[in-house]
Predict the 3D structure of the following.
Amino acid sequence: MTILERGLWSTPRLINLSCACACVAPELERKLGYKFVEEVALVSEKMLRQLREVRNSLLHLHKILLEYQRHVWERTGGPIASSYQLLSLVLHDPYFAWLHQLSELVVRIDELLDLEGATEDTAVALLDQARSLLLPAENGDEFQRKYFEAMQQSPDVVLAHSEVVKLLGKKIFNVH
């Protein structure tokens, strides 16, 4: 356990305490002006490296899925004339909406990579989200169904998927 000391110093500092001191926490807070906070593990370099690799692999998968979805669109809705039209479809057309979950996951990983003081638990949670999102299922939610279809019809999607899964398989366990 850690307390945040706000005594004589202008900036707070953390002081480690054993778990046995937890019973005196309220008394210390009241008498000395200390505030107890939970001790957290900052994200390790090894985990940051894995997150970067997973992020890059997810971006590649997203690009492959966009290309796949574009070809499916063009078979039924005609050719997409420009990059601007494609961007507009990706952002606003329900036909492409299922890909937003993958985009949002990449953004969350980017935010964590840019965050100073990110925790190991948050990084592990993002990797777990990626693992659960990338489970194709014929009878799952919309993303899972569309992802299942894409994997059935595109060898490129299968290859990109296997790369992400390989990186996600390198699960790092916290030892506290």
Remarks:
- Helices lie at 25-32, 45-77, 83-92, 100-114, 120-133, 142-153, 155-168.
